[in-house]
Amino acid sequence: MLATHIQIDICFMIMIFIIYLNVRKSNNYSFDNKILSFLMILVIFVLFFDALGWFFDKRVWDYSEIVLYFVDIIYFSLSCIIAFFWMIFVYIKLYGNMDMGKLKWAFLAVPLTLFLILNITTPFRKLIFYVEDYTYVRGSMFALQTIINFGYLIASSIIAMIQRKKEIYQSKKDECLYLALFPILPIIGGVLQIFEYDLNVLWPAASLSLLLIYINMSNEQISLDALTGLNNRGRFVKYINSAARNLKCGKRLYLFMMDIDDFKNINDTYGHNTGDEALIKTSEILKKFFSLKHSFISRYGGDEFAVVISLNDDTQADRVIKEMDKFVESYNENITSGYNLSLSIRYSYTQGKDFDLEKLIAEADENMYKEKRIHKRI
């Protein structure tokens, strides 16, 4: 049994380390990926100290009780720290930053701080655990670490589900859902281990959840444009095909094609870094403008973008273009750069019957380039 527990911990340590290396090698080593990498390192260490705890428990050696205290103090401390940082990861993943306010984060860290103090002093007070006759024994306040750990995990799930209700895009809803479901395996493993101490399921279960998170994040990155963070062309094709098949009767599915006016001139005059900046700014404009319009935004290629949206008629579509032009003008007034952004935008639509994607794109492209030629003459 002892050897099996240690082997399980070692296997999951190796698995998490391999995932960690893949995350570090990722082209998109963003802030949320850095937090995820840090979590993986913590999980590797907690698995290591879990294995040491199993090894030293009931070992009658010189100083083995001291070693067991040291190992278990670190183990329980890491467990609580991981739960807290998981909450931080979820918040950053959902909102892109930690701008909740220092006071709120400090308040959320109070349970962690309280537990760490009690845990570090446990050799003297025996509240969390103690060692008796070379054997680990749960203390009178052992349940506190379970309550705090589960509390952080459940709070993270609640945050994710609240955000899911606010999201418009299905991809973001799916992201919120898998973040909310992450704690299920660790909580089940934790409950089983509370009632059956000899089981070793908590951290293997948490490791499997991390693996699922990594798989979901990898799939997400495959579908996103690396520079702008918008959906890429492949995801656009899948989405519009699905949307056209499921279009409600009486509705039209509009494809807006747009590109940046004088983009080549921006690149040639200010350099490719500024060109990339223009693409990023354009993506931000599109995200803000279409955020409440139940639309699908993608970078189609180069400086060309595509937006798919269900509307009733051309009157609504023309209104979208007018409002978009005003939005871009307002954006230019509020920024200071050596150039102004402007977009050539036109559309085509399908009613779902005899849907032909190539024809739809070609028609929208042709209309857009007509508009672009008008812009050049102005």
Automatic annotation (TrEMBL):
SUPFAM superfamilies: Nucleotide cyclase (SSF55073). PROSITE patterns: GGDEF. Residues 251-378 form the GGDEF domain. GO terms for biological process: cell adhesion involved in single-species biofilm formation; negative regulation of bacterial-type flagellum-dependent cell motility. Keywords: Membrane, Transmembrane, Transmembrane helix. It holds the Pfam family GGDEF. The chain crosses the membrane at residues 6-23, 35-56, 68-91, 103-122, 142-164, 176-195, 201-217. One of its GO terms (cellular component) is plasma membrane. It comes from the Bacteria. One of its GO terms (molecular function) is diguanylate cyclase activity. PANTHER family: DIGUANYLATE CYCLASE DGCM-RELATED, REGULATORY COMPONENTS OF SENSORY TRANSDUCTION SYSTEM. NCBIfam families: GGDEF (TIGR00254). This is Diguanylate cyclase (GGDEF) domain protein. It comes from Anaerofustis stercorihominis DSM 17244.
